[in-house]
């Protein structure tokens, strides 16, 4: 167990189970879970923490598999102190813990178009880190800056250009934890934006297993994307289509299944372990490569130890 942790105003919990904090409902313990009160609390903690102790920032667990052996070191989970949404002069600033859908709705009410965020599961920190996007729009299109805290506890404001946002990728400094992001979205009519989001939600619910225990898209689309993250429709391949072509829709391993409704959604169908889910994903990758010569890359982040010590 980690010794001599710095004092905090937030909450420190030793050996905290993480399964209930992820959408997949699997995974082991955090050696230590830290829920900071605010940015200053987090910065002071990191500045005083032994630099050898690993730190992992965790959002709402929507695109994450925590392995069964848990996560050593400190898991930082941002909560209410980091979910504010402010709108000023056509700019939207959202805390890293603000839910994507909430940000989209608040912006739409103010006549600002962040509608592409409405159907993306998770929070703003993850959306920035992964350059989230759909319906032809991406975080890279509207992001102006991010506020981060580095592993040494220093706070920095970074222009969006410094993140080199690409398809499901950003180049944040090593150890950086996103605290907030500022966007400059285009203007739109609030009623029109609200109607668009309703339509997007209906389409998502019709095509994706939104009621099942998934972590969103399992694999990145394998080809046909520019360096800015925008799809090239003339060459685009869809991960679900190559999985389907390999005959893997509905494939199972233990309690894990490639969802029948949408085969790029790895699903905990009941009683799955993290190992079941990850191993099924690796089996899918192998069979797709063997049958089509296509290498699928994970979009879901897998973290922690395979087995407890």
CATH domain class of the domain at 81-192: Alpha Beta
Which word captures the global form? globular
Roughly how much helix do the residues carry, as a percent range? Answer: 10-25%
- Class based on secondary structure composition and strand pairing: alpha+beta
Determine the strand fraction and express it as a percent band: 15-25%
- In total, the number of strands is 16
Side-by-side strand order of the widest sheet: 6-7-12-10-11
Helix and strand string, N-terminal first?
Answer: EEHEEEEEHHEEHEEEHHEEEHE
Low-confidence stretches: 225-235
Count of helix runs: 7
Computed CA radius of gyration, to the nearest angstrom? 20 Å
Question: What tags apply to this protein structure?
Answer:
309 residues, Uridine Diphospho-n-acetylenolpyruvylglucosamine Reductase, domain 2, four-stranded mixed sheet, globular, 23% strand, five-stranded antiparallel sheet, single chain, alpha+beta, 16 strands, Uridine Diphospho-n-acetylenolpyruvylglucosamine Reductase, domain 3
């Amino acid at each position: 167990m980690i010794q001599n942790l710095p004092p905090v105003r937030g909450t420190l919990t030793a050996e905290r189970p993480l399964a209930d904090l992820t959408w997949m409902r699997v995974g082991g313990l955090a050696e230590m879970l830290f829920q900071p009160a605010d940015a200053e609390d987090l910065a002071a903690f990191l500045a005083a923490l032994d630099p050898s102790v690993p730190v992992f920032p965790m959002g709402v667990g929507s695109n994450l598999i925590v392995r069964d052996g848990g996560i050593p070191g400190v898991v930082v989970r941002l909560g209410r102190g980091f979910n504010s949404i402010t709108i000023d002069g056509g700019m939207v600033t959202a805390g890293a813990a603000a839910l994507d859908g909430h940000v989209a709705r608040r912006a739409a009410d103010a006549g600002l178009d962040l509608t592409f965020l409405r159907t993306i599961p998770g929070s703003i920190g993850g959306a920035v880190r992964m350059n989230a996007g759909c319906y032809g729009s991406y975080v890279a299109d509207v992001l102006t800056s991010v506020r981060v805290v580095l592993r040494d506890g220093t706070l920095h404001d970074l222009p969006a250009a410094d993140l080199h946002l690409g398809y499901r990728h950003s180049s944040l400094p090593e150890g950086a934890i996103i605290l907030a992001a500022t966007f400059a979205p285009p203007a739109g009519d609030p009623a029109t934006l609200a109607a668009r989001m309703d339509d997007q939600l209906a389409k998502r619910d019709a095509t994706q297993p939104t009621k099942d225990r998934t972590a969103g898209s399992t694999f990145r689309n394998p080809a046909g994307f520019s360096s800015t993250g925008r799809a090239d429709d003339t060459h685009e391949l869809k991960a679900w289509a190559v999985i389907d072509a390999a005959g893997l829709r509905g494939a199972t391993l233990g309690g894990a299944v490639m969802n029948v409704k949408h085969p790029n959604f790895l699903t905990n169908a009941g009683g799955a372990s993290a190992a079941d889910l990850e191993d099924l994903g690796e089996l899918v990758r192998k069979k797709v490569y063997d049958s089509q010569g296509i290498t699928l890359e994970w979009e879901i982040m897998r973290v922690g130890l395979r087995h407890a010590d």
